[in-house]
Design goal:
The protein is α+β, with helices and mostly antiparallel strands and 244 residues long. Helix content is 50%, strand content 10%. A hairpin with a 2-residue loop joins strand 2 and strand 3.
């Protein structure tokens, strides 16, 4: 018999002795109390017997523990709680992986402020954590939700800010799932980029455009006509100055 099996057998025997002593003391005390109160009503006798038995069990447990303690120490059969499997010590690599998982979990948990319905934003599997504590949730091919911990928070970055990041645009704060839906819909409604061959002033009209920003005309005929109009304007201005 190995030492482990021997220790288990001794421990089982001592536990059995302990339990038997407690049950015997409780039963004997309860039965004695019940018989001693024979003239009393049955309800009173039963209640008193149960109370006396419980008290006797408690006293017997304390007594047997002290009596059997030397034997348990001698045979190394003390109870040290449940035996648990050994857990490997954390490594820097494991801690880094835990930090990334923690960032995703915190982002999903904090997203409950955006969506009280606990929808897809509150699912940790939809978030990708990073080593700096941030996390991202991909929404479209060109947009994602960014969760950023607030540096002023000293309780483990439990407070977080959420930003919608779209390609070619500035991050926009998001305070609710309604904000997120509106921003995404607005991005869909944006007009397509103007073709390089198109006139950019066509959208507002030549009359409303800023004269200094209008493209110059390259044809010779147009240049001559513009010069004639300029001379006429100068003559008109000189005539008006003479009248004044």
């Amino acid at each position: 018999m190995t030492n482990a099996l021997r220790t288990r057998a001794i421990r089982a025997a001592l536990d059995t002795t302990d339990s038997a002593a407690i049950v015997t003391a409780a039963a004997a005390t309860g039965l004695t109390t019940y018989r001693a109160l024979h003239p009393r009503p049955a309800e009173t006798r039963i209640t008193a017997a149960l109370a006396a038995g419980a008290l006797a069990a408690l006293i017997a447990d304390r007594t047997t523990y002290r009596v059997l303690a030397p034997l348990r120490r001698r045979f190394a059969a003390e109870h040290h709680g449940l035996v648990r499997d050994a857990v490997p010590a954390p490594t820097p690599e494991q801690l880094s992986a835990d930090l990334i998982a923690d960032a995703a979990q915190r982002a999903a948990s904090g997203a409950a402020r955006l969506d009280y319905g606990l929808g897809s934003l509150t699912k940790p599997e939809n978030w990708a954590g990073a080593a700096d504590g941030t996390a991202t949730c991909e929404i479209t091919a060109t947009a994602h939700l960014l969760s950023v911990p607030r540096p002023s928070d000293r309780d483990g970055y439990s407070s977080r800010s959420y930003l919608l990041v779209q390609d070619g645009g500035q991050p926009t704060p998001v305070h609710s799932i309604g904000d997120l839906v509106v921003l995404l819909d607005h991005a869909k409604e944006q007009p397509a980029d103007l073709d390089e061959t198109c006139d950019p002033w066509a959208a507002i009209g030549q009359d409303l455009a800023i004269a200094e920003l209008l493209p110059t005309k390259a044809t010779t005929g147009d240049t001559g006509q513009d010069d004639e109009e300029h001379d006429i304007d100068q003559e008109a201005e000189a005539h008006a100055a003479g009248l004044l």
